[in-house]
Amino acid sequence: MTIALTALxxxxxxxxxxxxxxxxxxxxVISPIAFDIINRPAPVQAADGRMHLAYEIxxxxxxxxxVTVNRIQARAQKSTIGKALxxxxxxxxxxxxxxxTGSATLGAGESAMLFLDVSYxxxxxxxxxxxxxxxxxxxxxxxxGETIKQTFVGVGSMVSKRKAIExxxxxxxxxxxxxxxxxxxxxxxxxxxAIDGTIRVPExxxxxxxxxxxxxxxxxxxxxxxxxxxxxxxxxxxxTAGKVVRVQDGLPEQVPGxxxxxxxxxxxxxxHVVVRIxxxxxxxxxxxxxxxxxxxxxxxxxxxxxxxxLGNSGxxxxxxLHFHVMDSASPLKSNAxxxxxxxxxxxxxxxxxxxxxxxxxPLIQPNRLAGRHRGQLxxxxxxVSFGGSGR
Length: 391
Fold this sequence. Notes:
Helices cover 7% and strands 40% of the residues. It contains three helices and 28 strands. It has helices at 2-15, 87-92, 353-358; strands spanning 33-37, 43-45, 50-61, 67-76, 79-80, 85-86, 94-96, 105-106, 111-121, 129-139, 147-158, 165-167, 176-179, 193-195, 198-200, 207-211, 235-237, 242-248, 271-278, 281-288, 300-301, 306-309, 321-326, 336-337, 339-350, 364-365, 371-376, 382-385. Strands 12, 13, 16, 18, 19, 20, 21, 23, 24, 25, 26, 27 and 28 form a 13-stranded mixed sheet that branches. Strands 4, 5, 6, 8, 10 and 11 form a six-stranded antiparallel sheet that branches. A hairpin with a 2-residue loop joins strand 4 and strand 5. Mean pLDDT is 92; it is low at 1-12 and 18-23.
């Protein structure tokens, strides 16, 4: 009986989405798609000088029709916040859960993940809660050729009051590219995983640090030779004080130029160190050089302590340091937490990361995001200097 009633209500909502009664909930609508925010958003200031709320919304089509998400506008304090997502911008931020991209239309029973980045001036007070005005549409099943449109306000969440932790630089030197950093939809941001039945977003703010040489190239020589990468073996420094709670070493180096065959989710981080910062925060340093770790579980570290050397172990196609802050000691059973760097110098922006990784011209924009940054998070593909020699 309950199932039949639910089905009937959904059919009525599809056929008459604007109907209402005199009851107190007369403005409520039954939407074909159910939306749910995965984690409570947390504000962080990025290198563009703006505050960012990076979070994910899971969408599930509970109808038998193909339904398109046309527009999403975040709201806070009864007004809009950030830019609305629509058109190509919305499509580019949508990933169907079968891995399909390039569409914001969910077929019957399909689900998707929407990756939002709501940015606003740092002069504006951080919102305590957010909701969303969402517009959808679907083919009218009765009047063939016509479209039914629906807009509602809902899908709310409290906003975390916890301030992003500020950390020191895990590397030294210039020409470091903060690849796949906040807040675009990139391999880190899109790595939503169902671990033991719970959706985790472990790499939301993760960064892959790679280093260009003076000629703005990633390597000099053969792409598959680790010796071609001058920064291979660079010292990795603890970005915080804390206690080492996890060390993995002994996994082999991978051949650069392509992701390794046979990599598993269990060894994706390669040789790595996890430092417990405190107050539910942990820092991950991944893909270290084989045999290079210089700390043991239980060691207490201070900022600047050398933890190991930069390598190419685990699920890696080129030497790099993968760094992020998470809410547990497990790189898998965790959700990413925002963080900022105490200081770094912006040196520009890489417009073509694929070309850089392949050995081509990365097309540097030298003035973009350039200058001194304090208490900010690097943005995707920003070129930065942390000072020092880098070795």
